[in-house]
Q: What sequence folds into this?
């Protein structure tokens, strides 16, 4: 059974389905969802990018757009589980089926088990979709497999899949995660919290806004219809389309998880000398946008560094609204400094990571990631942290941040770097964030969706000794 998801090798008709003429008349919502799934499973596309693109392509709006989004994101979230259910129901390995048929079946399974679609409607529309996008030859097979899937609800199927499993293995299967992620969570949390933590990844995150200091305020966003949500002092939530708000359109506010806001806020609150601030891994610029405003409150400035040119462009675009704060963006490798060493008062190292703390926002990610993704990044994470330390002036403060709670890329990296250097001391980061309780992991901060309603961000604060 396939626990991780990438079907491009098995796809006979490679390339996008977008724009091809289907062989039957089908509703645009399901066609859009199928096209998105085909790009996600076949070409490694991201649901949060391809979803809006197909919705736009088919000119879906309102309830149709919401339905297509739920079909795409919900199917992606449970993809590996749905494949196992399809295998159990059909007695066939999904790798032996046409990948387009598997995509169609996964969409149908989500309607049957994850949505409240009446079974006859879910089966009829899915069979029709199969006939239209694959061909009449698969209609009977799709119909038969879906009928078998109606024999149980989702709990019934996960109970069958979890038979004989215990502990983290069982919890992972019951909460629609690959087993290795269940084990990673079990290593980090008390036993009674592993289930709730995994379950929280199955609930789509409500977009949180940040009111960028110096450019906007939470009060302005509330007046425009948002709600102040905390735990970050700059956070608000808005039920509608964020782009409807003037402050968002003008770049004075933006969509940003409250956890990301908190880790940037903690760096700004730490005691540090005066001077320039550095954001070493800035793309696409979320934290740089907040840090620039916080630096400007002290008449200080930010240098934002990003290695990927298109992401450096995004940073520059994000920072454009901060006209008077005069931040500087450069495209450079954070491990090969093109800036003076030992000069920065505050340094943010928000390093590339596995993203295991942001699974609510990246529906397909849990099935695409592997344990190797964590180990492959550790060397780069350590190099970037060393480089951040080298950039800091004596007494300067360095934030090491990941949007993953995985111990190997959080405390493991910090402890390895601490062991190699004599010019560093750990700072009590939780004491700088009194607005969150239950986030202290010793002197580190570890946020969790099920505890704090934020992404599972990790923060360590370090001071370079004088
Ligand atoms: C977790 S993301 C940063 C998110 C960003 N701080 C924000 O809040 O929007 C990590 C970023 O590091 C960049 N990156 C990866 N390797 C890098 C390197 N050697 N030097 C600088 N940036 C790097 C990636 O391209 C990615 O944009």
A:
């Amino acid at each position: 059974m396939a626990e991780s998801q990438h079907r491009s090798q098995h796809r006979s008709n490679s390339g996008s389905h977008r724009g091809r003429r289907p062989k039957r008349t089908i509703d645009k919502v399901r066609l859009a969802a199928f096209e998105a799934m085909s790009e996600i499973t076949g070409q490694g596309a991201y649901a949060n990018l391809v979803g809006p693109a197909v919705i736009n392509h088919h000119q879906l709006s309102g309830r149709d757009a919401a339905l297509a989004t739920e079909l795409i994101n919900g199917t992606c979230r449970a993809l590996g589980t749905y494949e196992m259910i399809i295998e159990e129901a059909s007695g066939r390995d999904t790798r032996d089926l046409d990948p387009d048929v598997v995509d169609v079946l996964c969409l149908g399974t989500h309607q049957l088990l994850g949505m409240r679609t009446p079974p006859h409607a879910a089966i009829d529309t899915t069979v029709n979709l199969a006939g239209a996008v694959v061909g009449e030859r698969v209609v009977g097979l799709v119909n038969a497999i879906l009928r078998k899937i109606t024999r149980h609800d989702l709990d019934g199927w996960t109970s069958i899949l979890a038979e004989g499993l215990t502990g983290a293995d069982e919890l992972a299967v019951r909460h629609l995660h690959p087993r290795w992620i269940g084990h990673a969570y079990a290593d980090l949390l008390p036993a009674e919290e592993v289930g709730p933590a995994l379950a929280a990844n199955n609930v789509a995150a409500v977009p949180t806004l940040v009111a960028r200091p110096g450019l906007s305020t939470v009060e302005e966003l509330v007046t425009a219809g948002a709600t102040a949500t905390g735990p970050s002092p700059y956070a608000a939530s808005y039920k509608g389309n964020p782009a409807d708000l003037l402050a968002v359109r003008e770049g004075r506010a933006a969509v940003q998880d409250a956890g990301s806001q908190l880790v940037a806020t903690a760096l700004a609150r730490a005691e540090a000398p005066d001077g320039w601030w550095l954001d070493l891994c800035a793309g696409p610029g979320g934290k740089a946008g907040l840090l620039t405003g916080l630096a400007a409150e002290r008449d200080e400035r930010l240098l934002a560094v990003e290695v990927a040119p298109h992401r450096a462009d995004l940073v520059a675009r994000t920072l454009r609204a901060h006209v008077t704060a005069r931040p500087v963006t450069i495209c450079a490798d954070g491990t090969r400094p093109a800036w003076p060493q030992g000069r920065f008062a505050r340094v943010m190292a928000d390093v590339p990571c596995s993203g295991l703390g942001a699974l609510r926002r990246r529906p397909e990610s849990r099935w695409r990631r592997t344990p190797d993704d964590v180990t492959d990044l550790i060397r780069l994470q350590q190099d970037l942290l060393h480089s951040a330390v080298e950039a800091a002036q004596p007494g300067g403060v360095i934030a090491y941040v990941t949007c993953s709670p995985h111990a190997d890329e959080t405390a493991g990296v910090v402890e390895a770097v601490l062991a190699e250097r004599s010019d560093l001391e750990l700072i009590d980061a939780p004491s700088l964030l009194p607005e969150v309780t239950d986030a202290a992991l010793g002197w580190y901060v570890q946020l969790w969706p099920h505890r704090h309603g934020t992404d599972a961000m990790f923060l360590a604060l370090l001071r370079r000794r004088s």
Remarks:
- The chain has a mean pLDDT of 94.
- The pocket of S-adenosylmethionine is lined by residues 260, 281-287, 305-308, 311, 333-335, 350, 352 (CB under 6 Å).
- The first strand starts at residue 208 and ends at 211.
- Residues 16 and 39 are 6 Å apart (CA to CA).
